[in-house]
């Protein structure tokens, strides 16, 4: 009996591994193409647009691939506390974010909003069709926006703050983890590729498979491997040599303070997905989960508290670090007329 027990202990792990391999082969053969297809589907939501504002300076600046990006720079008329780079949500234009920025300008911050390639009035990369997931191209464009801010005559040598919505937030956090010039970050509705894909994998596979009970006992990392396989397929199917990036590894490296905002009723990126990302960060951090708010709707649900929390955060972590306290008419950058 003892020998049989030892034999069982030795054989059991081998059988478990063999079983996982078999399940992996079956799922990969029968279902992984569904996951790759769903990964590439754009979510159905209303893309925000805004009206042209004459209150900002219109900026054109270069990025990788010889492209030119469009931005607008809002200057505060008060003694400047700091500069904030704003990252747009997927497919929106630069003027759609004015409601996020005008009160920051009134509070004493300059705000620079930029449109990544293939968005708004920025140049188009012909062989690239953006999705809601970030790639190296959005990261390049964020880095280019930061490089532009560093070249301005009124640049703050100590650094800037970052404020981003959804996809724009992901790109900014990805860059900010490696760039000390970003002193602090605010995100609203941010999401990672891996931490979004894996929870949805269980739902997707259960929808397409009649053996749903099997999938409930499979480990998290198993679905993670399938998600990475699906992403690899999607990369090969799409033009432009785009590589979908994962902010999870970057968030673990973050050292700058972070305020995460997320809606309780967000059905695109569920609150538990946001909390998983949040727990990965070891830097000073705050999480505000907004009751009644859906994806990117927190500012509409609780506008005054939203503004107060964001302002308090930037006043604590950006204004205290900014070294350039400029008067209301600070030095002009080279700009074109707003349009």
Distance between the termini: 84 Å
Count helical runs. Answer: 12
CATH superfamily of the domain at 57-192 and 246-319: Alpha/Beta hydrolase fold, catalytic domain
Let me know the largest β-sheet: 8 strands, mixed
- Beta strand %: 15-25%
List the helices and strands in order.
Answer: HHEEEHEHEHEHHHHEHEHH
Strand order of the largest sheet: 1-2-4-3-5-6-7-8
Radius of gyration: 23 Å
Mean pLDDT: 85
The CATH topology label of the domain at 57-192 and 246-319 is Rossmann fold
Just name the CATH architecture of the domain at 57-192 and 246-319: 3-Layer(aba) Sandwich
Helical content class? 40-55%
- The total of beta strands comes to 8
**Main structural class:** alpha/beta
Characterization of this structure:
This protein is an alpha/beta fold and 339 residues long. It has a domain at 57-192 and 246-319: Alpha/Beta hydrolase fold, catalytic domain (Rossmann fold, 3-Layer(aba) Sandwich), CATH 3.40.50.1820. The protein contains 12 helices and 8 strands. It has helices at residues 2-30, 32-39, 98-106, 136-151, 167-176, 193-208, 212-216, 220-237, 247-251, 271-280, 298-301, 303-319, and strands at 57-62, 68-74, 82-87, 109-115, 160-165, 182-188, 258-263, 285-290. An 8-stranded mixed beta sheet has the order 1-2-4-3-5-6-7-8, with helices on both faces. Helix 2 crosses helix 8, helix 4 (136-151) crosses helix 5 (167-176) and helix 6 (193-208) crosses helix 8. The protein is globular. Mean pLDDT is 85; it is low at 326-339.
């Amino acid at each position: 009996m003892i020998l049989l027990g030892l034999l069982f202990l030795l054989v059991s792990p081998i059988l478990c591994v063999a079983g996982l391999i078999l399940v992996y082969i079956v799922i990969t053969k029968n279902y992984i193409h569904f996951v790759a297809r769903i990964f590439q589907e754009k979510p159905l939501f209303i893309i925000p647009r805004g009206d042209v504002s004459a209150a900002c300076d219109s900026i054109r600046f270069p990025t990788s691939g010889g492209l030119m990006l469009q931005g607008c720079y809002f200057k505060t008329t008060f003694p400047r506390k700091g500069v904030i780079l704003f990252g747009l949500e997927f497919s929106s234009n630069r003027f759609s974010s004015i409601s996020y920025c005008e009160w920051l300008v009134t509070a004493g911050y300059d705000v620079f909003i930029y449109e990544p390639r293939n968005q708004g009035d920025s140049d188009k990369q012909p062989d690239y069709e953006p999705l809601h997931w970030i790639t190296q191209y959005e990261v390049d464009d964020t880095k280019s926006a930061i490089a532009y801010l560093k070249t301005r005559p009124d640049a703050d040598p100590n650094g800037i703050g970052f404020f981003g919505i959804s996809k724009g937030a992901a790109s900014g956090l990805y860059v900010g983890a490696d760039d000390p010039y970003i002193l602090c970050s605010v995100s609203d509705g941010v999401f990672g590729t891996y931490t979004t894909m894996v929870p949805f994998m269980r739902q997707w596979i259960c929808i397409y498979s009649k053996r749903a009970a099997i999938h409930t006992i499979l480990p998290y990392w198993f679905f993670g491997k399938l998600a990475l396989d699906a992403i690899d397929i999607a990369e090969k199917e799409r033009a432009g040599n785009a590589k979908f990036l994962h902010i999870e590894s970057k968030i673990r490296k973050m050292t700058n303070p972070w305020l995460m905002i997320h809606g309780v009723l967000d059905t695109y990126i569920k609150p538990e997905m946001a909390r998983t990302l949040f727990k990965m960060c070891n830097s000073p951090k705050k999480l505000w989960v907004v009751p009644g708010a859906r994806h990117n709707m927190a500012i509409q649900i609780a506008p005054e508290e939203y503004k107060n929390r964001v302002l308090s955060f930037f006043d604590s972590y950006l204004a205290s670090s900014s070294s350039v306290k400029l008067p209301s008419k600070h030095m002009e950058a080279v700009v074109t007329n707003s349009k």
